[in-house]
Amino acid sequence: xxxxxxxxxxxxxxxxxxxxxxxxxxxxxxxxxxxxxxxxxxxxxxxxxxxxxxxxxxxxxxxxxxxxxxxxxxxxxxxxxxxxxxxxxxxxxxxxxxxxxxxxxxxxxxxxxxxxxxxxxxxxxxxxxxxxxxxxxxxxxxxxxxxxxxxxxxxxxxxxxxxxxxxxxxxxxxxxxxxxxxxxxxxxxxxxxxxxxxxxxxxxxxxxxxxxxxxxxxxxxxxxxxxxxxxxxxxxxxxxxxxxxxxxxxxxxxxxxxxxxxxxxxxxxxxxxxxxxxxxxxxxxxxxxxxxxxxxxxxxxxxxxxxxxxxxxxxxxxxxxxxxxxxxxxxxxxxxxxxxxxxxxxxxxxxxxxxxxxxxxxxxxxxxxxxxxxxxxxxxxxxxxxxxxxxxxxxxxxxxxxxxxxxxxxxxxxxxxxxxxxxxxxxxxxxxxxxxxxxxxxxxxxxxxxxxxxxxxxxxxxxxxxxxxxxxxxxxxxxxx
Length: 481
Ligand SMILES: *Cc1c(COP(=O)(O)O)cnc(C)c1O
What we know:
- The chain is an alpha/beta fold.
- It has 2 domains: 51-81 and 362-472, Aspartate Aminotransferase, domain 1 (Alpha-Beta Complex), CATH 3.90.1150.10; 87-359, 3-Layer(aba) Sandwich (Aspartate Aminotransferase, domain 2), CATH 3.40.640.10.
- The chain has 17 helices and 15 strands.
- Helix 4 packs antiparallel against helix 14 (344-359) and helix 5 runs parallel beside helix 14.
- Residues 136-138, 141, 170-172, 243, 247-248, 276, 278-279, 304, 315 line the site of pyridoxal-5'-phosphate.
């Protein structure tokens, strides 16, 4: 076992089970030497070393020093049923013994992927009845690019290839999905976006709404889609893709007028609507899907994250009967697939996750109890003098930090205050993420009222400390947008 430390005791604490790991400093040194982290500045990381997370239970995670941290991000927006559900471990072990792997190419299938596809069809709105499986959201959105182009080509309209998406949207990190996304920093590396994709403005009233009311601005932002379809030519446009609520962009909850107008424009034009539900799916907004919360009728839904509560990597593209019918009638191979599409272990775990979400009425509880309670407590945080807006949709929420609440002003030094707040949260055992000067949360859906109270209390203290630091460092200066 070399330098491995033995589990000192079995304390009976369920978070104390697997502790045979090396000392923290050794792991940090090894991590720094051999591990290239996603979305991380390696220089900044190596200055302090990674915080090493070793176990989790419910909404709490534990680090290698034994600190218990309230994970208000549910990992990366995904651990919807919370950490430590043994039922998922048990089905994974059972499935690995029975059939650890088989593919779904070339006219074979297996029981778990069949059961999962049927379950998704039952839960998904409208006639979204068929799923193409992937390993996550990025590759599902890459599938969507090929799927919509193949759909139109099969209908004899091969020029309909262009896809419209949004600035500051997030659709994943592969070349296709990062091109669909509208993240400038990602496009700047490696010459993205690929051709055939364009981005319209986002429905981000707080920062971009100016003097318009949110409702007026929502309409205006949606009508940018109509203008873009006209510019590109309807005969060239395959689809529009958007998140019901932008997640990674900073929990941007669209004004009430936005989605009805987008739906009208998609209906009036012959283009497909793709709802990227990777975050908003499986209860996050207080309904099974964000499309239900926002009355969207997508032709395709991208799913991942909450599908397995992050316990296994699995995602997919759920398609409507209209699209499925074309593939069923026209024949011809869809020349696309991933070795792990519909992986039996991931499918078994996802199915068990959906059973728990359903049987424990977790989505209903978010809708009727903990969601409204969080909304009330979040609005209280919104009264903090450093907060210009508090917005929320179900169990995803954001705070806009500002030096001047009444003017919705940005900081002169943009992005300087959010990281300070994130560090104060981290130091007080609360994981809250920053996007520029926005603070965001997306806790496990099983968070209780008393855990919400703990989260709000820690966040409030972190805001106080952040404001004191920002004042001391001369950062409370308003800039212009
Ligand atoms: C996380 C995310 C993705 C990418 O999913 P991965 O599993 O990381 O590939 C795609 N779309 C949205 C909306 C996401 O939040």
